[in-house]
Write a structure and sequence with these properties.
Two copies of one chain form a homodimer. By secondary structure, the first copy, chain A, is mostly helical. Chain A has a domain of 144 residues: Tetracycline Repressor, domain 2 (Orthogonal Bundle). Chain A is 62% helix and 0% strand. Chain A contains nine helices and no strands. In chain A, helix 4 runs antiparallel to helix 5. The interface between A and B is large, with 52 and 51 residues. The first copy, chain A, binds a DNA duplex (18 and 18 nucleotides) through helix 3.
Chain lengths: 220, 220
DNA sequence: GTCTATATACTGATAGAC
DNA sequence: GTCTATCAGTATATAGAC
């Protein structure tokens, strides 16, 4: 909301001090969490003194809130963009695959805001989280709407509670920030495994039907 | 490891002060997390003064470590017990269902240690987590061994990396501590949805085969 | 065993010089 | 805009009386 003057919309590279503070905050929050990140940590990483931060932000929680909101917003924007770019007649399955892959990939590449968002969400003070909830709810409702489309098409079971499914789906991906290490696992392999698990399940369909279970989601 | 004298193994009900401190610690850590839980919070809930805690524990981190270990150990014990009690010829699918359901249920019932464990894991100081890792690794390896059995039986794909699958499976369940509220969702419905999602996938098998997708895991 | 009192350190935040 | 200096609050942990 607060924006330094004469800045274009959503600057990709941090130029001013305020953006630099936000960027390093996201990076440090991502690895140290909320409570263990001090204004001094942020200041040092930004190359200023901690008192100077208060020229741009009223409090530590104001920084947290902005990092939280930016994380969700960037995630939302990327997912919607990739979905909107799909061909009109694309199957629900492919649509969901793209959404899941985008969410997962953004969690582990392209900046620290999305990963910091996942970590900060349970750790941040309740008032901050409460204010952030409206942004997060929009994103969740977007997924639920997509799932309802899938139900209408008959691609997924009518009886499912789309809210629970949404929480389970994104939960599987979100939890990966706790264990995924770029040097230890291959991002594409993990993404493919996760998407395959969520779309087709772990158990092989050992019926006569040649259903290609656990053998999909290998595009991109 | 440290145990007050003349105590039987794994006391179910906390009698002594030490056990009471541990129990309230687990409860408070579960809801407030690591950093926001103070020795004073614990002391007050245990009905003593904060200085008295140091008669039983050298430091806050010693409490955290014990809560962390107990959480994983209880989870491990419950899952193994339920698996061992199964009939010899039971299918891999049923086995996995029982394991998943046990893990999920224990996360949300029967004490705060298991839920606190999930929350503390990313928040606790690295040295504490590092010491806890051997316990956690045993539990992960137990799951991976189970998955390998499934591969040997042909129940799940041979090509899957069992470590990644294990992390994805438990991640789906673990993440639920962030959103599951007993008053808002039904535990059995969420468990059934989660297990169905993980075993059979979200997408309907719209082949001719009468494969009962998303229609299982409703025992227990 | 549990207490009171306190040491020590560090936190988020403010005041005001430059 | 960024600094130095500092306040007030609170944290973990210790010392020692009872």
């Amino acid at each position: 909301m607060t924006k330094s003057p004469s800045q274009p919309d959503t600057p990709t590279v941090a130029t001013g001090t305020r953006e630099r503070v936000l960027d390093v905050s996201a990076r440090i929050f991502r690895s140290r969490g909320y409570a263990d990140t001090t204004m001094n940590h942020i200041a040092k990483a930004a190359g200023i003194k901690s008192a100077s931060i208060y020229y741009y932000f009223k409090s530590k929680d104001e920084i947290v809130e902005e990092v939280l909101n930016l994380g969700t917003q960037r995630m939302f924007k990327a997912v919607r963009q990739n979905i909107d770019n799909l061909a009109p007649g694309v199957s629900f399955r492919d649509k969901l695959t793209v959404a899941l892959r985008t969410h997962f990939t953004l969690l582990h590449t392209q900046g620290d805001y999305t990963a910091a968002n996942i970590r900060l969400f349970p750790e941040a003070p309740p008032p901050v989280v409460k204010r952030h909830m409206c942004v997060r709810r929009s994103y969740g409702l977007y997924w639920q709407a997509m799932l309802k489309e899938g139900q209408a098409e008959g691609a997924i079971a009518d009886t499912l509670d789309v809210e629970i499914v949404q929480l389970l789906l994104l939960g599987t991906l979100n939890w990966s920030v706790q264990w995924y290490k770029p040097k230890l696992y291959d991002l594409n392999e993990v993404a493919a495994s996760g998407i395959s698990l969520l779309l087709d399940g772990l158990i092989q369909a050992d019926e006569i039907s040649g259903n290609p279970v656990s053998q999909d989601a290998k595009d991109a």
